[in-house]
Amino acid sequence: MMRVGVHGAVGRMGTAACEAVAGADDLELVAAVDRAAPGEERGGIAVSGELKAFADAECDVVVDFTVADAARVALPWLAMHGIHAVTGTTGWSDADLDELRSAFGDGPAHCLIAPNFAISAVLMMRFAELAAPHFDTAEIIEYHHDRKVDAPSGTATVTADRIAAARGDAPWNPDPTEHEVYPGARGGAGPGGIRVHGVRMHGMVAHQDVIFGAEGQSLTIRQDSYDRSSFMPGVLLACRRIADHPGVVIGLDTYLGV
Ligand SMILES: NC(=O)c1ccc[n+]([C@@H]2O[C@H](COP(=O)([O-])OP(=O)(O)OC[C@H]3O[C@@H](n4cnc5c(N)ncnc54)[C@H](O)[C@@H]3O)[C@@H](O)[C@H]2O)c1
Ligand SMILES: O=C(O)C1=N[C@H](C(=O)O)CCC1
Question: Which positions bind (S)-2,3,4,5-tetrahydrodipicolinate (predicted)?
Fold first, then answer.
């Protein structure tokens, strides 16, 4: 039985993760931590306000769904205590990722940073990477619920990185825009100048379109998470397999063999 802790336990994703872990026969929820509402209960255990609860409960792995500022502190702390980290938190910079690589190094604790645990999203990113060399225009539109604090989404930034890497030195069709009547109308320019547009919409959960264009044709790859339950199989898989994946791994792809 893997002993699992959840950081950000009273949040939307933390609450779902506590319930999913508590309901899994081969995992045991042993600690739940959140700075908001310590003393509440999630997945049948009391929520603590202190990271120390993870060490006290002898966690093998901690699932983190917080904000980048909190995860930046928690993940190196977990590395120092020899506890594996599975984080779905988004909003990381390249410098943050370097810090995590040096915190986990080749030590006993491993780290998975997955911007999206839904299998449909993992495949959407893979399909976008496959399409990239064949089109000279690409734009990303990500759609999320109205409580999301970071933009663009972690999924969109990783998708843009992967499209740009797959395209390599091949030139993109130039953007003709000379003037934006509304600043930002063309979205944010990501790697390779790929435009990323963020929508925040009451009623939505997490969705993305990747649109590719070439002479006389276009391809749209669409992914939808209608419910947070879509992320839970990926979270549980990560807890079960993290001991087999040393260092810092980005994305669930290698865990799924995609
Ligand atoms: N990877 C994925 O599949 C996936 C899916 C959904 C959300 N996310 C990401 O997960 C993160 C959380 O999303 P959410 O919708 O659950 O947000 P949320 O606001 O509902 O929950 C975040 C929780 O973190 C807690 N928190 C904040 N700072 C803390 C600190 N210093 N110490 C302890 N707890 C702290 C908050 O109190 C809150 O309960 C976001 O970065 C989001 O982008 C990723
Ligand atoms: O609800 C969120 O916030 C989500 N964030 C992830 C991201 O930033 O890519 C994806 C899943 C939902």
Answer: 145, 154-155
- ipTM of the assembly? 0.99
Which three-class secondary structure state does DSSP give residue 196?
A: strand
Paired with 138 in beta bridges are 212
7 is catalytic: no
Mutate to test the pocket of ligand 1, among 66, 145, 236 (most ligand atoms within 8 A of CB): 66
Q: Hey, what CATH topology would domain 119-225 get?
A: Dihydrodipicolinate Reductase; domain 2 (3.30.360)
pLDDT digits (tens, 9 = 90+) for 121-150: 999 999 999 999 999 999 999 999 999 999
Which of 67, 85, 75, 114 shows the shortest CA–CA distance to 231? 114
173 is in an annotated binding site: no
Q: Is 147 exposed, middle or buried (0-12, 13-18, 19+ CB in 10 A)?
A: exposed
148 is catalytic: yes
Ligand in nearest proximity to the CA of 238:
1
What are the Cα distances from residue 32, in Å, to 68, 185, 231, 233?
18, 42, 19, 19
**Residue 125 parent element (H or E):** helix 119-131
Ranges of each domain in the chain: 2-113+228-256, 119-225
Q: Report the topology of domain 2-113+228-256.
A: Rossmann fold (3.40.50)
